[in-house]
Design a protein that fits this description.
Helix content is about 50%, strand content about 10%. The protein is mainly alpha-helical. The protein has 3 domains: about 35 residues, no CATH class; about 90 residues, DNA polymerase, domain 1, CATH 1.10.150.130; about 170 residues, hpI Integrase, Chain A (Orthogonal Bundle), CATH 1.10.443. The strands form 3 sheets. Strands 1-2-3 form a 3-stranded antiparallel sheet, covered by helices on one side. A 3-stranded antiparallel sheet has the order 4-5-8, with no helix packed on it. The chain has a two-stranded antiparallel ribbon with strand order 6-7. The longest helix is centred in the last third of the chain and has 21 residues. It is elongated. The N and C termini lie far apart (about 110 Å).
Length: about 375
């Protein structure tokens, strides 16, 4: 006689009553889960996926008393290979800093909408966090519980019964042309002068510029080519691919930017020779490295940026707002939306228009001007 099936073992059979194929998986002693499909191959794929989830410890009976914190730790391991490094880091931080401290000990099966409301209130009132942070944290918990339902660990998603606070609308702050000139003057000779210049003249993201290498910088052709971005992850940094194909792009440089980059490269080559064996980067690696030639972090740039603005009494904006400034000034100058969209790496001009509609000169003014010319000629004839 065959012995009892062990945990996470399954078998497939065709049902006689309706002809459907059925797979059964042993989750725990005395606990099984059935899967159904129209073909044997379909059921086999479902069974393989379920076995993988069971092996990761994410599949279990609903009454196993598993705490939310335990489940979320296992869930993070499962999604680690399914999302971008930056996305995983965001999940991990929100779970570690907010969800687990407040709800980690609550049994998964006992989680209620009231628990979620208490999490929101704790984050907003006691932790003094923004509605946007609470909204994003709610989204992470919703995602995790949705997967729990799909895997048969949970019966319902309590996040569906709770409305998260609306994301706070942040007013876009940009520099005027005069302030841009003041910024470039203040940055003259600064460690990040070239980085600031490239950011303001190309509209590239900070992460994209920190991942930029000299092999993707053509000073003779006056272009840079964006193929990746830089994200800070647990234990260091990671170069990530653009979210869409449009993120892979070549951007033209101004003559002043090219001249500054030539000076910048010459200084770093001298610095590399001076450091000798202490140099940690490639011979001509990152365009904007740290002092040892290795990866430069976002936080380092942001700190130096804030110090520069405070010293020069310039309006305080984020470094990322240089991207908004570049886009807005190009649109105000009459550069077509489609071209600005291409430079920014947006997937469509519609996204660019939605973000920067306020910076696009009104077509009504052009229409009125044209009508004035027509009517003026008509009155003279």
């Amino acid at each position: 006689m065959p012995g009892k099936r062990g945990n996470h073992e399954g078998h497939i059979r065709q049902r006689k009553d309706d002809g459907r194929w059925e797979a059964r998986l042993t989750i725990a002693p005395g606990k099984t889960k059935s899967l159904y499909g129209a073909t044997q191959d379909e059921v086999r794929r479902k069974l393989t996926k379920l076995q993988r989830e069971a092996d990761q410890g994410l599949l279990g009976p609903r009454d196993d008393g598993q705490a939310l914190g335990t489940y979320l730790a296992r869930w993070l391991e499962m999604v680690k290979t399914q999302v971008r490094d930056s996305g995983y880091l965001s999940y991990e931080e929100r779970i570690r800093l907010y969800i687990t401290p407040r709800l980690g000990k609550v049994k998964l099966a006992k989680l209620t909408p009231q628990h979620v409301r208490e999490l929101h209130a704790w984050m907003l009132n006691e932790k003094q966090l923004s509605p946007t942070t609470v909204n994003h944290t709610h989204g992470v918990l919703h995602h995790a519980l949705k997967d729990a339902i799909r895997m048969g660990v949970l019966a319902r998603n309590v996040c569906d019964a709770v409305d998260p606070p609306r994301k706070a609308k942040r007013k876009m702050v940009i520099y005027t042309p005069e302030q841009v000139r003041s910024l470039l003057e203040a940055a003259r000779g600064h460690t990040h002068e070239a980085l600031i210049m490239v950011a303001i003249t190309t509209g590239a993201r900070l992460g994209e510029l920190l991942a930029l290498t000299w092999s993707n910088t053509d000073l003779e052709g006056a272009t840079i080519t964006i193929h990746s971005g830089r994200a800070e992850v647990i234990g260091g940094f990671a170069d990530t691919e653009p979210k869409t194909d449009a993120g892979n792009r070549t951007i033209s440089l101004t003559s002043a930017t090219v001249a500054l980059l030539r000076e910048h490269r010459a200084k770093w080559r001298e610095h590399r020779v001076w450091l000798g064996a202490a140099w940690q980067g490639a011979k001509d690696g990152y365009v904007f490295p740290n002092s040892l030639g290795d990866q430069l972090g976002h936080a380092t740039v942001e700190h130096a940026w804030r110090v520069l603005l405070a010293k020069e009494a310039l309006p305080v904006i984020r470094f990322h707002d240089l991207r908004h400034t570049a886009a807005s000034l190009m649109l105000l100058a009459g550069v077509p939306v489609a071209e600005v969209s291409r430079m920014l790496g947006h997937s469509s001009p519609h996204i660019t228009y939605k973000i920067y509609a306020h910076s696009i000169p009104s077509a009504q003014h052009q229409a009125v001007a044209a009508m004035e010319r027509i009517t003026d000629r008509a009155s003279r004839s």
